[in-house]
Amino acid sequence: MILDRIQRGLAILVGAFVLYTAATGPFEGLIQRALFLALVCSLGFAVYPLGAGRRWRPLGLAIDLALVAATLAACTYVVVNYDRIMTELPWATTLDMALTAGLVLAVLELGRRTVGVIFPVLVLIGLAYALYGNHLTGPLRHRGFDSAFVTETIFLGDLGIWGMLTGVAATVIAAFVLFGALLLHTGGGQAFMDVAMRLGGRQPGGAAKIATIASGLFGMISGSAVANVATTGNFTIPMMIRLGYPRPFAAAVEAVASTGGQIAPPIMGAAAFVMAEILGTSYVTIIVAAILPAMLFYLSVFMTVHFVALRRGLALVPEAELPEWKQIVAPRRVLPTLAALGGLGIGIWLGRSIATAAFYGILGLLAAFVVTEAGRLSPWQMARKVIAGLEDAGRGLVIIGVLLAGAQVLVSMINLTGVGVSLSSLIVSVAGDSTVMVALIVAFVCMIMGMGLPTTAAYVLVAAVLAPAMTAVGIDPLAAHLFVFYFATISVITPPVCVAVFVGSGIANTNWLPAAGEAVRLGAVTYLVPFLLLVYPGMMLQGGPLAITEAVAAGLVLVLAVPALLAGIRITGRRGIDLALYAGAIGLAIYPHPVTPFVALALLVGGHQLGRAQRKALA
User: Fold this and answer.
1) Which of 163-167, 254-258, 299-303, 314-318 has the lowest mean pLDDT?
2) Taking a C-beta distance cutoff of 8 angstroms, is the pair 394, 11 a contact?
3) Alpha helices in 314-418 (DSSP H)
4) Distance between CA atoms of 225 and 209, rounded to whole angstroms?
């Protein structure tokens, strides 16, 4: 079919463009971003055609072609007039306004087709507010901006649609998406699944633990919790159901584990790169700060699954279905992955840009892949796998490119109008300069604003509007950004718009509401860990060994106490005393004092030993 060939050709072209610019370095800022957006939008209209399979498809085709033409015209205009735009700061003409309208319309329409109507509506509200906010009353009123000034901000400079977010998408994020796609297509995907099955399969709740490990590994690369559920969930959810796991529980495990991949280094759903740019800090600083919270998240999910498995007697995975270690550690399975990570590490160690480091990882991956598969696969078969990786990366970049370009328009309008500062001042005034109240209000608003949005877009939105409210009351900027990022991320498992749960429930063929309840229980610690970031600097591996030890102690208390409390695990055998022990330990863990985490840990350990002694005496 002609459309399929166009899709494949454009997807491979996008992947090749990313590979070329990662290897040789990007073009000049606006040129790189305009070429990237032209490619991903053209591909997007081919992959998500309007009216496909319907009688009015000819009309949809005409609309698609018109939007592609508008996109190409606008991007070509920027490439041709790059010098004039960057040196003369030109006034907006009627042509400029027409090109801006066509490009923004194309980006928002693609956003609607890929992730739904919520995101483009938010961008349109931002644009309407910039144009007509002078008619409002109260603290949200601004002086007003005409269409020419808005056009100059969005189109004729590097603060609007060609701003930082689009730049990160066109360079760093694109390089890592390509890195991940090639890794999965050259055997990394199967390697991740094999490791997950071997590590978790023979433990209580083994199938759920397999889902947790596999989805976490995939999620760190995929950049989308929903896409991760749809990918790994088609394997893990049927396996759990076949072994007798309740359907809502199976759907929830996959949704929560896939969400965890978004907060786990090194990629964090691509938000790590965006966060580094916004904060003006290094990428390494971001991923180091996120290590301990991510470990606590997965440990808490493991403990919850373990406790639930013990109480419900969930079946183990049969030994015959698990791969042997000798298969898992065979050179052709592990060498490509190790070479990819080694190349990436070498690039970072040498001080290269993150995109160049990703290219080093790709080189290591491809070299190891060719060496290990020589003799097993023909050169054409190996080339087909690489081409499939390029194609998959191109398709994956459509959503990322479109969302970040749209988000950049929204952020530019927020900055232009100053509404972010106004909302931050409003939150601080309502909270009365109380750090706790500001954090609670921001957490609630983050989850509301993040509902229905992909990870990176949700983070960008809350970072622009809500993070300043936290820094205004003295919270460290890195802690503030990680705080809003986590709450925006876990909105995908939080009712009522828990899109990751919706997808998992569809695969499990069950009602989403009980699955959402299970997901909240499985991810309960994630609702508390962000507050530890505000209390203990050691949670971001800052402040020295003692501070880190305090943070680890507090985190371990939450990881042990919250899952045990929600699973109904008894310590002493007396419900009232157990509840008091759990509640006291959790309260002490999140109380801002250097001693309380250790007291809480001692309380849990002491209660456990007391209960054990009582059970022995009764026996």
Assistant:
1) 314-318
2) yes
3) 325-328, 331-349, 354-373, 379-417
4) 17
Q: How far apart are CA 368 and CA 31, in angstroms?
A: 34
End-to-end CA distance of the chain: 73
Instruction: Identify the burial level of 460 via C-beta atoms within 10 angstroms of its C-beta, where 0-12 means exposed, 13-18 middle and 19 or more buried.
Output: buried
For residues 158 and 568, give the distance between their C-alpha atoms in angstroms, rounded to a whole number.
55
Instruction: Give the tokens for residue 361.
Output: 């990882």
Q: Quick one: angle between helices 206-222 and 174-183, nearest 10? A: 140
379-417 and 419-431 helices, crossing angle to 10°: 70
Query: Over the stretch 192-232, which tens digit does the pLDDT of each residue have?
Result: 777 777 776 667 777 777 777 777 777 666 656 777 787 77
Sequence-distant (≥ 6) Cβ neighbours of residue 65 within 8 angstroms? none
CA 614 to chain centre: 46
Query: In the predicted model, is pLDDT for residue 324 greater than 80?
Result: no
Using DSSP, state whether 544 is helix, strand or coil: coil
d(CA 601, CA 619) in angstroms, rounded, equals 27
- For residue 377, list its beta bridge partners: 374
Residue 374 dihedral angles phi and psi, to the nearest 5°: -60, 130
The residue extents of the domains of the chain are 542-619
Contact yes or no for 543/537 (Cβ under 8 A) = yes
Cβ–Cβ < 8 Å for 291, 220: no
Q: 10 Å Cβ neighbour count for 386?
A: 20
Instruction: With H, G, I as helix, E, B as strand and everything else as coil, classify residue 547.
Output: helix
Residue with tokens 């250097």: 594
Query: Model's pTM, two decimal places?
Result: 0.79
The per-type count for the chain, helices as H runs and strands as E runs, is 30, 0
Question: Comparing C-alpha atoms, which of 302, 312, 301 is closest to residue 243?
Answer: 312
Conformation bin of residue 246: beta by default, left when phi > 0, alpha when psi is -120 to 50: beta
Structure-token match 């959810």, residue found:
237
- Is 517 buried (19+), middle (13-18) or exposed (0-12) by CB count in 10 A? middle
